[in-house]
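Write out this protein's structure.
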Amino acid sequence: MFLDELTPFVQELTAHPAAFLGGLASGLLRLSLSDDPVKSWLQNQGATPAATDSAATRANSRNGGPQSISID
């Protein structure tokens, strides 16, 4: 039962180990693909970083983050 849940994890790890471990390391280190060191390295490798939702980021920074609402 527990092994069935880990099967997709193991399949991705064995199919693309370098990409998987790179993504895992960047997630653990909380690296953003749009930050300069990572972005310039990706451009040198010929890859383009995934588009980020800059509109949502700007809206959160402008409003100061999540806000509470009241529901009648």
